[in-house]
Amino acid sequence: MSDDYFFNVKRKRPEELFESVLDYYTNETLSMYAKSKSIMRTQRKITLRALEILELKKNHFLILDAGCGPGFVSIYLDELGHKTIALDIISGFLKFYDIKDLNPILADMCFPPFQPSMFDAIISISALQWIYKDSNLKKKDLVLISLFKSFYTILKPKGKVVIQFYPKNKTVLDNIGDIIAKNTNFNGNFIIDNPNSPKKRKIYLLLKKE
Ligand SMILES: C[S@@+](CC[C@H](N)C(=O)[O-])C[C@H]1O[C@@H](n2cnc3c(N)ncnc32)[C@H](O)[C@@H]1O
Questions:
Q1: Which residues lie below 8 Å from residue 68, measured CB to CB, with a gap of 6+?
Q2: Domains of the chain in sequence order
């Protein structure tokens, strides 16, 4: 990403309109999301691209799906032969489909309840914007610091993280980059697919534990 790359999403996103993710995903919105075949197809495409970015050398890795929702990503990872643990903060999502083989865990991904050096990789699809959204700046920094420090701790050495999300503008990327650089030993970079198409643009953050 060159230094002069810039974008700014004008349309208000749900995370700007709702105080908390728990307020947005009520029974109705949750069920609409979970039943949507087109969202499922999109999330599977994003997962495939995330795996390409991770460059995992073989299957059978243990992967954490952080912010798994109804499990579109976890189910796909499982089909591809990876051992997956699905984590979300909303219990209704974890119960929507029968994903008990995917070890669903009800928890906040900023405080993941796992032992150090447990995962080969962490994938988080379309969730980070909810964590970034917090309007109280100080609290936002604290939860993001906790998120990235925790991810660093629970990854095995040489483990990798890929996060796809919907930032509002380039400043968000700069802030997140600063927080990671100041608080963890991750190496990483942003990867932007279709950078000049607001509709097709997809933003990924790749982090590597050396
Ligand atoms: C747009 S959905 C994406 C779900 C899933 N990753 C997918 O690709 O279909 C965003 C998800 O992030 C979850 N989420 C948001 N903040 C979270 C947090 N702090 N901890 C765990 N999950 C969180 C929400 O509950 C919701 O399931």
A1: 74, 86, 87, 88, 93, 94, 102, 104
A2: 14-208 (3.40.50.150)
